[in-house]
Amino acid sequence: MKMKIVLPSNLATQIEPHLSHDDRIIHLDLQGNLDGDTSDAEVYFHEWSYNAFFERVLSCLPNLRWLHTESAGIDHLLIPTLLSRDLIMTNSAGVHAIPIAEFVLAYMLDRAKCLSKFKLAQQQNRWLSYPEVAALGLQELMGASVLIIGAGGIGQAIATRARAFGMRVWGSCLHPRSLPGFDLVVGAEEWRKLLPEVDYLVLATPLTAQTKHLIDASVLQSMQASAYLINIARGAIIDENALIHALQKGWIAGAALDAFTTEPLPPDSQLRSLANIFITPHCSGISQQMQQRVVALFLENLALYRAGKALRNIVDKAAGY
How far apart are alpha carbons 143 and 222 in whole angstroms? Predict the structure, then answer.
């Protein structure tokens, strides 16, 4: 079954050797240029770096039947042009779980062991005295509690690693059930009762109408002053103004953020100036191995698509995940 497939140019060399000789390939470069006629293309592999011209590309694909996205979250792609089309959409949920989970543990270890402060002292050519080190308040992850909002594939990968450190691991999801790595999984609203006991609050849930600004002033005020917030999901899940106020007033001890409402984070954002915040540029899902898994997932789904079978990771565009 031959078909026309649109591929991002920087992934094409990894994918093309596995395609049929009869397939016709259209390349999409980083400037959004297509190198052929796409009027009859039916498959499009969308990469994150092509978001800026996603709508324009869609308009060039009138006969698109299947769209696969490199990302796990799809909120940024749910534009009217897409929602009006009758097409299959799949995401790459699962392939980012390992690097993201490792990033979350890195944020926790930085918080507990004050690694950034030791690095700063090294850069300043300072040897911290014992009283200075003692004043840092070094902690252990053993026995600390972590609440993971969103107990899907990423949440479960985080839970497994946190459990290995001896942490108490709690989670929440729409349909609570026993899950590997978790000591407790509660429903979509029950997690709020756990907040006063939480040391680390990790956001790993999709951005939907229900989760937008889920972390607001009332949530932040319910947490203990020593608690730490970690967001590796979507920026808009947090009310950023409320978080800034909470960090300034000491409602919580700090935060590690890999996602923001506006990206890149504006240079004048108050988040940049706060000492008790760790900022990374929406990169926690990236690794060399991750890209290999994305390509493998696409090729597996392509084989299923050719055979007329159900694809992996079909998303519900109405639900937003």
Answer: 21
